[in-house]
Amino acid sequence: MRVVQNSNNIVRVIKLIYLNPGISRIEISKQLGLDRSTITVVVNRLVDLQLIEEIVDENPVYKKGRTPIGLKICDQSGILLGLEIRTDFFVASFVSLNGQILGTIKGDVEESSSFIDTFKNIYRKVVKEIEKKNLPLLGIGVAISGIINTHKGVISGSNPLGIMEELNFYNEVKAFIDVPVFIENDANCGCWGELANISNNREQDFLFVLGEFRKARFLGDNTHLLAIGIGLVIDKRVHYGKEFSAGEYQNPQYVIGNKTQFSITNEEFSLIKSDRDIIERVKTELSRDMAFLVNILNLTQISIGGDLVQYFDDIEPCLKAEIQRNSSYKGYNNFIIQKATEGADSIAFGAASMLREHLFLTYENEFDNPWQQKVGINLLNSFSQTIRNFNFKK
Questions:
Q1: Residue 141 · residue 355 · CB < 8 Å
Q2: What pTM value is reported for the model?
């Protein structure tokens, strides 16, 4: 048990440093309730692993005495790769361990015989760009549309990508990738991106609304749809549901046979980019559905991501009005509606951020850990080993 506690202390310390860049050893000791000698040992280890570094406060409040020494996550320790794979293109976000975006690239998705082949082709392209950064690749987060058992790394199904049978993604990719790889639903990655904000005042309960115009492979034609996905965070945790299908959206007035998730017919949807009335109907249906969730769950934040960001100025007032109309109490205004942290690229950023958030996971014993991939102290050890190997080869 003591080994677990020591490991958890290391994770707790690096999480606190991430959320409070510049924090001192004394303050860490106070906030975590650990003695200073323990903090000294943990901090020294993290410094040796090149995961954190010391910074000097150049403008201290008190001029006398020892100059305050703060701690922060290293800027150049390595790269977390966030990869959003859509039906026709991909977005790759290179993110440092401290949350800084080091670069973003986009490209077309080439036709291939399987999703694994698609992933391999994208991975080869992206790795070439990472090599130019002269930093080690620490891990990969993959975001796709569909029902994903992220604990096991299994794709239960993805209509847009044409995955109709269960696919064990982890087992398929571990043969050619030697760093940790996580796969997650795209809207949930949007949640991870919002949680990545460097602040102790994270919103506890919020909604992430992802909207993307994309080609639907499962329809067997070149139809492009407005696809909506929902990510839900309760008590600062992404909510999955027992079958990992939480957030799968369909309007209550949906008619079987429609290509969209709304009540509008296929013919009406074909006019969505030119017919203002149809745009208003879709906007109202979506806003009313989201308003119901916001009020029933007492959510305090709604983040809009993906292609919907470009329509934010239209959606925001409509959604606000529907939330207030749906509320049982007049004047309810205890919520914020905002654009996702990284706008249209928020999903790839969130996929990378997910890796870092998994670094912060702690469990009292291994039996409580549902993840088949490395998380917590095991993920930290993987990152540090990758950094050491990279520096040894230089």
A1: yes
A2: 0.92
